[in-house]
Design brief:
Elements lengths: L10 E7 L5 E7 L1 H5 L3 H5 L14 H8 L8 E8 L5 E12 L5 E9 L14 H9 L3 E6 L4 E4 L1 H11 L15 H15 L5 E8 L5 E12 L5 E10 L1 H24 L4 E4 L4 E4 L1 H7 L9 H6 L3 H17 L8
Antiparallel strand pairs: 1-2, 1-5, 3-4, 4-5, 6-7, 6-10, 8-9, 9-10, 11-12
Length: 331
């Protein structure tokens, strides 16, 4: 059994005067464990809490530091850059107060998301679902509302646990596991889910333990409680690298064929005998003097043939090509 948290409860409380520039009035808690800076760094304005916010969380920062004062405490998730340069996923709760002089102060409590996770225990997962987690080829996982892994398929933990060199995947966020540019992609999709999207999906690059670039088909879905509140998400990730490479190879081959035809002055076409419709290459269009709007039917083809040659060509096509299955090879 894994303990409920791999990280001790880490939290800090800031009191901030919402004015320009922001002024930190007090700092309490273990802020140095949370962000790597001392309380004095913030009190002296040597370090700005606002400057530590991930640029893609500007929407959260705007809500947090606005002078508008909500009547009730509000919660949020945000990414903050630690003194070591890495991103930390943080859960926060804040409240604003107005003084008699019209000034607004902000009290915000920040908690390391990893210190809040709770391990549901595999014994609470239905046997049929445990079997799927143990035998699937896809990466399947659950995350809580704070972007922390709480359950993952066996193949996923086997692949990713070595990256952590000690801690298990469970109880971590993507920023402890992946390079930031990839973790940013995963977090962006999760923000869409937590904002109310029924599904967030994207095909994107990622990187394996040994540094290989792979292509993933990433899908994430919300998990709701009985009251309809989103309490987490469910993810399915499939490695589609072979399919992407095949598509890229086909495109490169197609471009190479087009270039070869252009240089040699050779055109090509494909005729669907059942429908009488045909398609043609750009080079052939140029040779025939037609554009994309030209009627590509048998009638359209015969209109391109000199009137004196039409009957002969039609007979050759019907008798030799269609009936005798010979190659179409005629001037």
């Amino acid at each position: 059994m894994i303990s409920e948290s791999n990280v001790p409860r880490v939290e800090a409380i800031f009191d901030i005067a919402l004015k320009a520039p922001l002024a930190v009035l007090s700092v309490s808690g273990n802020v140095q464990d949370l962000l790597g800076y001392t309380p004095q760094d913030f009190l002296s304005s040597e370090i700005s809490l606002a400057d530590l916010i991930h640029p893609h969380d500007a929407d959260i920062a705007e809500r947090l530091f606005s002078i508008e004062t909500p009547h009730e405490p509000d919660t949020f998730n945000i990414r903050l850059r630690h003194a070591d340069g890495r991103i930390r996923c943080v859960r926060g709760i804040y409240r604003k107060r107005s003084t008699r002089g019209g000034k607004v102060t902000l009290r915000v409590k920040l908690q390391d998301a990893r210190s809040l996770w709770k391990n549901p225990g595999r014994q609470r997962i239905p046997a049929s679902f445990r079997a799927m987690l143990d035998n699937t080829d896809d990466f399947i996982f659950f995350k809580d509302r704070n972007h922390v892994f709480i359950v993952a398929s066996q193949n996923m933990t086997t692949a990713l646990d070595p990256i952590l060199q000690g801690p298990t995947l469970l109880g971590q966020t993507d920023y402890e596991i992946f390079p930031e540019k990839y973790a940013d992609i995963y977090y962006r999709l999760e923000k869409q889910v937590f904002a109310g999207a029924s599904v967030a999906s994207e095909v994107h690059e990622s990187q394996t333990i040994d540094g290989r670039v792979v292509w993933l088909d990433n899908h994430k879905f919300p998990i709701k409680n009985d009251n309809g509140e989103i309490v987490g998400l469910f993810g399915v990730v499939r490695d589609i690298s072979e399919r992407i490479r095949a598509q890229q190879s086909l495109r490169e081959s197609d471009e190479s064929l087009k270039e070869t035809q252009r240089i040699a002055g050779l055109g090509s076409y494909v005729l669907d005998v059942r429908t009488g419709k045909w398609t043609s290459s750009e080079v052939l269009d140029g040779l025939l003097g037609i554009d994309k709007s030209y009627e590509r039917t048998v009638l359209g083809w015969t209109k391109l043939i000199h009137p004196e040659d039409r009957a002969t060509m039609a007979a050759y096509f019907d008798e030799d090509v269609l009936l005798k299955r010979q190659l179409f090879n005629r001037e």
